[in-house]
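Example record

One chain of 523 residues, shown exactly as stored in the release files.
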Amino acid sequence: MEKKKQQQSFRLAQQWRLLLLLLLLLLLSAASASQGHNYADALHKSLLYFEAQRSGRLPYNQRVGWRDHSGLTDGLEQGVDLVGGYYDAGDHVKFGLPMAFTVTMLSWGVIEYRNEIAAAGELEHALEAIKWGTDYFIKAHTSPNVLWAEVGDGDTDHYCWQRPEDMTTSRQAYKVDENNPGSDLAGETAAAMAAASIVFRKTNPHYSQLLLHHAQQLFEFGDKYRGKYDEEEGSVGVVKRYYASASGYMDELLWGALWLYKATDREEFLKYVITEAHSFGGIGWAISEFSWDVKYAGLQIIASKLLMEEKHKKYSHILEKYRSKAEFYLCSCLRKSNGSDVDHTPGGLIYIRQWNNMQYVSTTAFLLTVFSDFLRSSGQNLSCHGGSVGHEELFRFAKSQVDYILGSNPMNMSYLVGFGPNYPTRVHHRGASIVSYRENKGFIGCTQGYDNWYGRPGPNPNVVIGALVGGPDWQDNFMDERGNYMQTEACTYNTAPLIGVFGKLSQLEGNEDGQTQNLVASY
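Predicted structure tokens for this chain:
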């Protein structure tokens, strides 16, 4: 009997110890969440990613040491110099449309949060990331009505698994011109160069003017010779399986015109945005995503902000319609629209698509942050079907998406590679998954990479720091496998929108007035 009592007491003591241990873990987890994340470190690492994606001859101050020169004969067959630019993801094609969107978003981030990025000591690196792209666009725009759209093609590129330094795949270049139009590509490249011209206006005025000159020519070309760049016959049909322009070209023409207005203050560009608002879908499309393909939400956010300036009052009837569509986008992301809410995972992540969902999360976080600032400065609220939303709530949700990316999620996984203690180590990335060229200059052939490196179960030998991978599925599950490209491949346009947001959050993180205490991570 006594022995049975002792056993019961022992079991009770064990249960109490287990309960106390669980309580301690919960307290530690809450303490960790309340501390938030090191956003300055996230900013620093994100900018490193763009150096890992560089094509061409790398500069003396290249910080990503496992990369070397590549693509040094790009454009040679066509008699043009197309050396430089960015590889979009884990392969080695230079796709013009996503590259241009990447540069537009990097530039917009610096325009909005330049001081915050500078305070974190990262402004020069941000400017270098932008200029690496715009230098390439200057080369690619060889005459007023010619823009080189792509180098390499996805089909032959995907047949091989090689380091970029060893490339043996086709480097054929493709262009858009008067006979083979690409208004979508021309419009986005115009937007990128116009936005970048604003970035460099004070620090490099001559370069800023050069960018603006190219931007205006590209917009005129895209507007005069209208058509999609991905048409099977002519233009760049090879891109259709990879970066097809599903939204068409009208959003890019409005987008390009609006950025040119911001860069020049010339009313002709604003009038274009106003007069074509209806026919081009600017005030007709209410869309719940913002991406390299679909620009309407970003266009509508910027147009909404114009309402605050007295000189735009005469266009208020159209600008109000732009704002209405912008509010639809924002409210649907918050799940406060009238039946058209964006899906959220159980862990609270915006979920648009199975393949590379994080691209939509980063663009959403950026647009919500920008609009939150607008609401705060204008003393307004967002009007949703589910009620009025203040700038604090909007920003809190944007921050929750960023914190999810950085590890505040059910998997306790940082989806920004190299950040935190737990992040993807088998990123679907050719260069990262094979021994560095600087370590071993022995040639690795087209299929050798598949034979000797692709299927290895261990982590990649090189870490693509700052890459934002495709992320988890609709149930917050994630498989860190090299062949799981839907979840483990990263793209430049995933990380680009986060640069500005990380800049803002790093400044708030450094504040000592306690203003950020109510903006803690949700996990």
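Notes: The longest strand covers residues 147-151.
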